[in-house]
Amino acid sequence: MYDPQVLLQQIDAQKWLVMTLFGVDSLFQVWWLSDAVRVAKRDRAYSIPLFCTLFWFAHDFGCVVRFQDWFFVYDHWYLKLFWGVLLLANLLEWFFLWQVHRYGREELAPDLSPRGFGWLLAAGVLLALVAHELFKGSFGDPLFQLDPTLTMIVYPAFGAAMLLRRRSARGQTPRMWWNFTAMTALFHLTTYLCFGPAFQTVPYVAAAVVATLGGVAMAWVVAQPRWRYATVAP
Questions:
Q1: Nearest residue to 17 via CA among 78, 62, 69
Q2: d(Cα 116, Cα 119) in Å, to the nearest integer?
Q3: pLDDT tens per residue, range 28-65
């Protein structure tokens, strides 16, 4: 838990460092997510694990719809930039949901009709939104700065599960994982250096290390010939 005003003052005290690291971090995030959209079309398989898609969508949508908080209540440059990055991420996540609907039915629920699978996916989105709001109300993270770590730490775990289930790197590439790793490392470096004691605790640092090393491990594993997937033409 942190005091929002104190956190924003700490960010202002290191404005240029935050802007530099945050800017580079955002480039890796957009590169990673846009590449995930491209790879899914190439391999005809959704590229982001379903749990992560639902979790990230709920998180980013929850931030985006709080437009008034960032632009009028707090009216702070960092929160406006953060909102803009998550808006772009949320738009890409709509593509991820479409890709799950387009490519995921035969893999996840072949007995369902396309319409039935669509309704099931919509129910999952609704459940994720409600669960996230319940979580946010008890987590003590008013500015959405602590919980991005949770969205990052789940990706290597569910990415590995998807790899094992498919028995190939279908829908995944080493470049996707390296971009995720760079984004994760830079985000946590920024928060550790500039955001104060709440972002320097042992559990927070441990989660940051696990998420980053998980990305490194997945980048290495996906690059191995054993998991290589023979791509198909679009």
A1: 78
A2: 5
A3: 999 999 999 999 999 999 999 999 999 999 999 999 99
- Kindly tell me if the per-residue pLDDT of 232 is higher than 60: no
Spatial separation of the C-alpha atoms in residues 11 and 19, rounded to whole Å: 9
Backbone angles phi and psi of 206, in degrees to 5: -60, -45
Q: Indicate the residue type of 192.
A: Y
- d(Cα 39, Cα 53) in Å, to the nearest integer? 15
> Look-up: residue for tokens 């702070």?
76
Instruction: Check if the beta carbon of residue 43 is closer than 8 Å to that of residue 229.
Output: yes
CA 158 to chain centre: 12
Quickly tell me which residue has 């198909």 as its tokens: 232
Which residue has tokens 């770590």? 149
- Token output for 123: 């129910």
* Closest by Cα among 182, 179, 164 to 221: 164
Token pair 């008890």 is found at 138
